[in-house]
Amino acid sequence: MAKYFDVHPDNPQQRTISNVADRIRSGGLVAYPTDSCFALGCQMGNRDGINQIRSIRNLDDRHHFTLMCQNFAQLGQFVHIDKDVFRAIKAATPGSYTFILPATKEVPRQLPHPKKKTVGVRIPDHVVTQALLAELGEPLLSSTLLLPDEDEPMTQGWEIKERLDHVVDAVVDSGDCGTEPTTVIDFSSGEAEIVRRGAGDTARFE
User: Fold this and answer.
1) HSE (CB half, 13 Å, CA atoms) of 141?
2) Bridge partners of residue 83, in order along the sequence
3) How far apart are CA 42 and CA 55, in angstroms?
4) Dihedral (C-alpha) 144, 150, 156, 160: value to the nearest 10 degrees?
5) Chain-centroid distance, C-alpha 129
6) Residue 170 in contact with residue 5, Cβ under 8 Å?
7) Which of 47, 7, 68, 56 is nearest to 163 (CA)?
8) Which residues fall within 8 angstroms of residue 184, CB to CB, at 6 or more apart?
9) What structural domains does the chain harbor?
């Protein structure tokens, strides 16, 4: 059964955040809130967690996972980014954007796109997510919590707990965080390509 963590949205309890981080470090898969919608997350090198996310969401190996990063210093360890692209991304973060970029060797081999060798990265604008990332000290491998054959992600922590009780290890709930996933921008060619229009304004990339 999944452990349910009720977290204050503005002042997340440190003890609770530490407990969630411990579960992630111990190989757990968690459902947690972001600034766009709920996501599934585990450690980068957690092969079982990655396979579980694929199973829950019915994903193939061409799906771009996202590394949820605390800040630019962390993001820069895991993707190659030139000065022009850096400036464009810097102006849009933190926020509801996912950027697809070439992965560095720091990214576990099973994560990058098998042909493109790219991975998604983002810096969220969400108090609870940022608290969890600070406690972990490393990116959280993530994917939008959107179940197969459903048009919108689930928005209620209790519903996630109810439906995914036996396939996730923890549910972090800090209230409704919306149903619109991130806007996805592919910068792997050096130019901005809008892959998905979502919560982030695309005007700056058009």
Assistant:
1) 27
2) none
3) 14
4) -80
5) 9
6) yes
7) 56
8) 64, 97, 98, 99, 100, 120, 194, 195, 196, 198
9) 1-194 (3.90.870.10)
**Closest Cα to residue 75, out of 133, 144, 27, 115?**
133
With residues binned 3-state (H G I as helix, E B as strand, rest as coil), the percentages for the chain, rounded to 5, are 25, 20, 50
| 87-114 pLDDT, tens digit each | 999 999 999 999 999 999 999 988 888 8
Positive or negative torsion for Cα 167, 161, 155, 71: negative
Place of tokens 């609770």: 16
Dihedral angle, C-alpha 137, 138, 141, 143, nearest 10 °: 60
The predicted-structure confidence for 36-61, as pLDDT tens digits, reads as follows 999 999 999 999 999 999 999 999 87
Question: Would you say 80 and 188 are in contact if contact means Cβ atoms under 8 Å apart?
Answer: no
For residue 31, the SS3 value is: strand
Question: Roughly what angle, to the nearest 10 degrees, separates helices 14-25 and 127-136?
Answer: 60
Whether this prediction's pTM lies above 0.90 is answered by yes
Q: What is the length of the chain?
A: 206
